[in-house]
Write a structure and sequence with these properties.
The complex is a heterodimer of chains A (351) and B (293). Chain A is of the alpha/beta class. Chain A is 47% helix and 15% strand. Chain A has helices at residues 10-29, 34-53, 57-64, 72-79, 121-127, 134-149, 167-171, 174-185, 202-206, 227-234, 241-248, 252-257, 276-295, 299-311, 338-347, and strands spanning 81-85, 98-105, 108-115, 154-160, 192-201, 213-217, 221-223, 263-265, 316-318. In chain A, strands 1, 2, 3, 4, 5, 6, 7 and 8 form an eight-stranded mixed beta sheet that branches. In chain A, strand 2 (98-105) and strand 3 form a beta hairpin. By secondary structure, chain B is α/β, with parallel strands linked by helices. Chain B folds into two domains: 15-54, no CATH class; 55-287, 2-enoyl-CoA Hydratase, Chain A, domain 1 (Alpha-Beta Complex). In chain B, the strands form two sheets. In chain B, strands 3, 5, 6, 7, 8, 9, 10 and 11 form an eight-stranded mixed beta sheet that branches. A two-stranded antiparallel sheet of chain B has the order 1-2. In chain B, helix 6 (205-208) links the parallel strand 8 and strand 9. The longest helix of chain B is centred in the middle third of the chain and has 20 residues, at 171-190. Chain B starts with 24 loop residues before the first strand and ends in a 15-residue tail after the last helix. Classes of the chains: A alpha/beta (351), B alpha/beta (293). Bound molecules: zinc ion. Zinc ion binds at residues 28, 30-31, 33, 47, 49-50, 52 of chain B.
Amino acid sequence: MPAYTLPFEKPILELQAKLGELRRFSESQEIDVGEEIRRMEEKIAETRRRIYSTLTPWQKVQVSRHPLRPYTRDYIARMTEGFIELHGDRRYADDPAIVGGVARIDGRRVMLLGTQKGRDTKSNLRCNFGCAFPEGYRKALRLMRLAARFGTPIVTLIDTPGAFPGIESEERHIAEAIAVNLREMFRLPVPIVVCVIGEGGSGGALGIGVGDRILILEHAYYSVISPEGCAAILWKDRAFSDRAANALKLTAGDLLEAGLVDEVIPEPEGGAHTDPEATAARLREAIVRNLDALSSRPADALMAARYDKFRAMGVFGETPVPPPAPPEAPAEPPDTPADTGKDARQDKPAE
Amino acid sequence: MTLFGKRSQYSTVRVRKRDMPDGLWVKCPGCSDILYRQELDEALGVCRKCGHHFPLGRAERIAQLAEAGAFEEWDAGLRSMDPLGFTGTASYTSKLESHARRCGYPDAIACGRARIGPHAVGLGVMDFRFLGASMGSVVGEKVARLIERSTAERMPVVMCCASGGARMYEGMFSLMQMAKTSGAVARHGDAGLPYLTVLTDPTTAGVMASFASLGDVILAEPGALIGFAGPRVIRETTQQELPQGFQRSEFLLEHGLIDCVVPRSRLKATLVELLTCLVPDNPARAGAAPAAG
Ligand SMILES: [Zn+2]
């Protein structure tokens, strides 16, 4: 049983305690309560199903941060064969918050990389709670370019609260490292499949998140700002994180509806942490299927479609532009055929 | 040569003296001196005593950089929507309305074709007063269109940046503008055209982590706050004292990000010189607009 329980999982925990009592009673008294035990187990499963099928956005954020949730290395171990980890950005350091290397998934060669959280204090100090430094993003780009040179498709797994907000991060230009990745990922002539497996924390997530297919696990989230950060700005109080999580439309379902992700991968009942093996199998299936769908595309078409995919993101209105007001100061250049411009503009008010 | 092409949609951005905070007198945050507004305007919004660079409105920035009458605004009809139906302490729609009323324009960036000295360029100017020049769908779309159209018309792009980051009220639509604008920069660069960014106070977060950081040449105004995370967040997260001058233009020059810190009085001349040296086949490009009548 999970040693860690989320607040809304309490009813499950209580039933599990009762089940334990029942078992102990049955053993000590040598009375057959098999029927009661079966009913209790059913009730637990039913309660878990009910809770997990109606999670609020804020509860999903908590599931995505569950300390027993599988992390990048757990998926690498379960989904791939022959993973060889490749280290370092060849400029400054090796950042353990981003893991990368070559591997095979169902016989297909891939460059696999992802943000990595720690499981305990020691490992969290090492990989900085999954918050990458600039060298992490630069390592990721080095590995992706390496993959591109040899036609190896790229898979990225995202699970980070965000890029690390610290002095060294700024001194080594974390913003530039992310920006360069965004620009360069459009130039990679190989298929890129991105999957948000836990926390999709803003720019730190997007820094390895430009791809041809964007997948997301059912209880993962992907957001422009953390619910706590949003609550602190709007309500000056982190206690409003649940309302912020609602407002931000950050769940997998919301994002699919908005057309910002391509596919939601269902998690086992009770969340990925209750069955990492099954979650990894589903993730592998989705990755392989999407890689195969992309594998026959010529590089130019692939990159053009990737550009168009992100180019289309955004919601705005467009109204015809009112006629230009007569300029106050020096008029338009004397050789300007201003009336021609006006006529043409009326013919074609908007692009 | 014409700057007002046949097929273009355009409007004139009026240069208004009142684009900086109202009032006849302003207090300088740099030296606490009380400055006479008109004198400050005449000094390009720079304190004569301490050199503090006041933020500029879009019209003032355009007036300072572009030749008179040589700015043709593009995509002025784009309007922000409220795709999430965002309501926190106030609704996003009401915020958009109040900022539009106060600023006199509908969103945080003006984009268009300008002439800077002899050079025809795509010019983008962000205005911090509009919702902290945060990047939502409209800012992202206008930046992408500016860069794409400049690519098609073979013009360099000059981007004057200022921003508090991605616009929270549009959620993930805002975040994705970072990818969209960076993709457009990639194509512009692939076409062999220079992209110059000017970082002004403040340029941070999502805008800094996308098109603002990607300049072939990155200029900064003196003393501008430039970075990814805000100083307060960094202090709270790390519990560390921040170094002197942390995240300011001069600090970033020293740490190798910025090519040049340029006072406002020299900004236009610097851009003209850079364009002269970097734009292929200069200066005839001004006449290369396809719609030239
Ligand atoms: Zn001063």
